[in-house]
Amino acid sequence: MSKNILYLSNLLLLLLCGCREDIIIDVEEGNQMIGIYGCITNEFKQHQITISKSGDFYGTGSPAMVSGAEVTVTENDSATYTYKEIEPGIYEMTTPMKGKSGNIYTLHVTTHENGKAEDYYAADTMKAEVESIDSMKVMLYTFNNKKADDYYKVCPYFQTLEGAHTSYMTKVEINGKLITDTLNECRTMQLGQLAGIYLNGKELEAFYKGVDFPTGIYYINGEKDDEKIKAGDEITLYLHVISEDYLDYIKDVKSSSGSNPFFGSPANVRSNIKPEKRALGYFFTSAITKGTTIVQKKDLE
Amino acid sequence: MRIIRKHPTASSYLKALMTTICLLLTNAFVLSISAQNKTATLSGSVKDASSREALIGVSIYVEETKGGCTTDANGKYTLKLPVGSYHLAISYIGYKSIKKEVSLSGEKSQTLNLVLESDDTEMEEVVVTGRKKDANISEALMSSQKMQMVTIKKIPALMGEVDVVKAIQLLPGVQAASEGSSNFSVRGGSTDHNLILLDNATVYNASHMMGFFSVFNNDAVSEATLMKGDIPAIYGGRLSSVLDVQTLDEMPTRFSGTGGIGLISSRLMLEAPLFDNRTSVMVAGRRTYADLFLPLAGDEYKDTYLYFYDLNAKITHKFNDKNRIFLSGYMGRDKFGMDGLAGVGFGNMSCSLRWNHIYNKSLTSDLSITGTDYDYTMDIGINPANCELGAGMKDWGLNFNLFKIWNPSNKTRAGLSGTFHRFNQGELTAKKDEESSLQYVEDMDLGLRKSFEYGLFLSHEQNATKRLTLKYGLRMSLFHNLGKETIYEFNEKHEKIDSTRYGSGKIFNTQINPEPRLGALYKIDKVSSVKASYSRTVQYAQMASNSTGGLPFDIWLPSNPNIKPQKCDQYAIGYFRNLFDDQLETSVELYYKNMQNVIDFKDNARTYGNEYVDGEIRTGKGRSYGIELLAKKNVGKLTGWLSYTYSRTFRTVEDINFGKEYRSPYDRPHNFVAVLSYDFTKQFNLSANWVYNTGQPVTYPYGKYTVDNVPYAIYSGSRNQSRYPSYHRLDLSATIKSRERKDRRWQGEWNFSIYNAYGQHNTWAVMFSPDEENMIKTEKMYLFTFVPSVSYNFKF
User: Chain A contacts of B551, Cβ < 8 Å?
Assistant: First the structure.
């Protein structure tokens, strides 16, 4: 509700006026913070955790990575999986595993920056995955009964999960190449009253990509170089079931857009890494279901 | 007077309260004795000699007593004097002064009706102020500014739309919440600390089009008074100020009208006397038409709509010399959106019915019933968010006030008021998809929050000596919530732990607060005076929003067991001096405000659609102080004012800025305003205003963190530690009027104006976005540069 309201407010403002120019702001000084980001999924693989440091606001280059940390994930306080550093700041499970719905995964990280040991931890419970995506269609996006050029919606057919607040995140590949390679390009949604029904694709309409109305699966923007599609292309949809808190985190990251009189004072994006306010990032679980389709010529007309 | 910087302790507070009550009782006793002396009453009216219109604020000076009075809103006056002969001097700016000798026998009251002739030699230069010529130094009320539409209409305006609120924002101690906003902060208070009244009815949201225009149609408005402190006891419910806007209620001499055609709107006001000049009717309306041109911008805009309209109406009827009624109504609405996609509508409706009754020559009363209704709706017409949602605030109020003039040196006001608040916190109704019959979103109903607010007040103004005037009063405010409502209980971490359900009609959370109001005027000589005041104000309803810009979707929350009433103690002292035969008013005012239970919102607060919004609120303390310098010229070819304000305002609120004091969003220390208007001839006027403000406080990040190739800003937890660049702007306007001809009623004028004449890019927002190399790009957003406009205004 609040997102809709603020979006419409800004839309009005942009209709009226709104000029922009680049500026450099005087940022204050602050302590470098540790950031921890990673997940456990229901895929059988060696899952990864990234540990890095915050950087200067206008800093260039890759973030400074944190090496030499001890990383483990405990499953239901029983099995423990150890990680090893494969690249600076990138930690990978030593043995592959597959996350299970209902299990609690707890991350423990000990860093040794400046010779001082610091402990961090976070936990998340893996949700149930969508049983299967039975089929998928790619269709030209229609708005107000008009077909949009080069804008396609990806419509899967599947039995949605119960619970209006069940949260989903989608990622898409075109011919095996991930087009959602940044968090900003991932789409999140809650299906509300569509929860628990069989989606046949027709119900999925939304405004356009980037506006998080409560549903919508994915939209391919053919105007982007890496999102152009043609007949015969293989489209793969990864439907992640995530926690509502992680969905909020993604929204916060996407809307961390500065100061605006309509929004109030900006604040840090929330993190689930404990101790509170000592670290950035997020540790989450994700139950993934995959669907695939081949683009037909008629889909593009 | 020493400025007291500490908040009073319980004992000192009780002492002040007792002192106030004792003063009131003593005065009542003295008055009861003096009333037994042999006195006579002289009363009557003062009218314009040619138009026969009642003149408001005419000074009637009694040379023998060195006292006097002014005519009231109906042009009437009453003097109670000991039996004897007196010389009266009657003066009014723009009119020839006259003298009269009267002899009062004491057996019965006497009537003396007066007419004043306009002073043609001065009239061309006069701005009718509706107040005494030397009111700046002789009236005990301080920290108050009354603005007439004559003055406001000369101020250059955005898109040529002359606006009461935009004019108020140019006064010392007042700051616009952000560029273009109709929200404003007074002496460091929040934007919801201002009581905005339209003909005595509360206006919760005074904005049209996101605040670029206010709800007040300048053709319908008679005058606006802003009280920044020293708030009379008759007013209550807000911490910082009262903006009292009154629509036209003077009896027109004939059918007449005013109007204007501008670039974005047109307006028309018509008024007429009826029934042998006992009734007057005024109707005013305006509508914007920018949306009519949107299709010209391209097919993609053909379904877009964007407009507002409003309508004012007022009927006044004089039953006889002792009874008059005023019925006033307002309705306005904004609409914007796109057909088939989404639409937003919001607006105010208000009405008031006031009965003015004169019991006798020295006692009058006002009984009024007021209603106000602000609501917004959002209609989303596309799947999957196919729904309607809305919220709003409704008030119904009853006020009864008495005004008693015991003698020229003693005046008492007393009254009571009751207001029923009904705040709809928000409801969402999902619409089913026509094809699939599916409902995509959940219905939601956050329910109503109902409450009662009562006020009982008594205030007295007493000319203690020839030089010293004292005014003292007490307002007792009482508040309670009314079921049915569920109140959630929160623990120390503001997590919901329990709830209590109050049944329908159940009264809970009763609050009683005394609000003493004290003031003193000491006239040093004929041209200068010193004033001091203290006022305590209490606020029982607040806006549930952490935005400073003001949105149509802002809803209000009443106090409840989780949200304590906000309180403010304001101390002020000022030196006032008039120069050049009262043509130039100057003043210096110092103030200090101490606020308790001020609210702010925690980081990442969710204020919309949140059933547990009480848990998002944090409370604390606030303080503001400042000095305001003003030089104002009301008459002559050159009119206007120069003002400089140095002010600071801070908050200390739990969980924000590590619990340490931080700058309020309205802490902008330096503020300079020049508003100047020059009449070159009767037909040609040039006006300019220049505004300078220290930049608005802002919270800037100190670093960034990158996750999944997306960098985002990180903050240290400090609040408002940085500032936007300074704000400044020059506006210009030229008005060319047609020549007045006795044989022609129609008078027209062209107004050409430029807003932000030198195109300053004032920062409205600073936006961050990741660039292609995953660095953060910072852009400032500015709203208006060099906005020229032209409008044609007329009257007949």
Answer: 5-6, 9, 262
- CA–CA gap between residue B146 and residue B134 (Å, rounded): 14
Instruction: Please state, in angstroms and rounded to a whole number, the distance separating the CA atoms of residues B224 and B74.
Output: 17
- Residue-wise DSSP of B382-426: SSSS-EEEEEEEEEEEEEEEEEEEEETTEEEEEEEEEEEEEEEEE
Which chain A residue shows the shortest CA-CA distance from B776? A58
Which structure tokens are listed for A253? 């990251």
Residue B240: Cβ-neighbour burial (10 angstroms; 0-12, 13-18, 19+): buried
Around Cβ B6, how many Cβ atoms within 10 Å? 9
- Dihedral of CA atoms B684, B689, B690, B692 in degrees, nearest 10, equals 180
Tokens 């804008």 locate to A151
Written as six digits, the tokens of A260 are 């605006």
Q: Report d(CA B344, CA B305) in Å as an integer.
A: 10
ipTM: 0.86
Number of alpha carbons in the 13 Å side-chain half-sphere of residue B535: 30
Chain A 87-116, residues with CB within 8 Å of chain B CB atoms: none
Please enumerate in sequence order all residues whose Cβ is within 8 A of that of B26, keeping only pairs 6 or more positions apart, or say none. none
Which residue from B minimizes the CA distance to A2? B608
Question: What burial class does residue B231 get, using C-beta atoms within 10 Å of its C-beta: 0-12 exposed, 13-18 middle, 19+ buried?
Answer: buried
Using CB atoms, which residue from B441, B547, B705 is nearest to A261?
B547
- The SS3 assignment for B160 reads helix
The DSSP output letter for B432 is B
Q: Do A265 and B719 touch (CB under 8 A)?
A: yes
Antiparallel, parallel or unpaired: β A279-294 and A34-41: parallel
- The Cα B65–Cα B70 span in angstroms is 15
Rg (CA), chain A: 21
Range B363-366 contact pairs with CB under 8 angstroms and sequence separation of 24 or more: B363/B402, B363/B403, B363/B404, B363/B405, B364/B72, B364/B402, B364/B403, B365/B400, B365/B401, B365/B402, B365/B403, B366/B399, B366/B400, B366/B401, B366/B403
CA-CA distances (angstroms) from residue A185 to A252, A254, B451, B719?
Answer: 14, 9, 47, 31
Which pair of structure tokens corresponds to residue B105? 């026998």
The CA–CA distances, whole Å, from B703 to A273, A280, B370, B773, B781 equal 18, 12, 52, 16, 21
For residues B700 and A266, give the distance between their C-alpha atoms in angstroms, rounded to a whole number: 8
Q: Are strands B114-116 and B39-48 parallel, antiparallel or unpaired?
A: parallel
Cβ distance B718 to A207 less than 8 Å, yes or no, reads no
Count other Cβ atoms within 10 Å, centred on residue B716: 20
**Distance between CA B190 and CA B597 in Å, rounded?**
13
Using an 8 Å Cβ cutoff, are B109 and B78 in contact? no
Closest CA in chain B for residue A1: B609
Q: Which two tokens stand for residue B75?
A: 């042009």
Q: Which of B775, B637, B645, B631 is nearest to B712 (CA)?
A: B775
Q: Cα–Cα–Cα angle for B265, B267, B273, nearest 5°?
A: 175
How confident is chain B (796 residues) per 10-residue block, as mean pLDDT?
36 39 36 49 75 71 81 75 84 79 71 74 39 78 86 83 89 90 92 94 89 88 91 95 91 88 90 87 91 70 84 93 93 87 90 94 93 91 76 95 91 96 90 67 87 97 93 96 93 90 94 96 93 96 76 86 95 94 92 95 81 90 96 90 96 92 95 95 92 93 88 89 93 90 86 91 87 82 86 91
User: Which H or E run includes B544?
Assistant: none
What is the token pair recorded at B711? 């960098």
Q: How far apart are the first and last CA of chain A?
A: 34
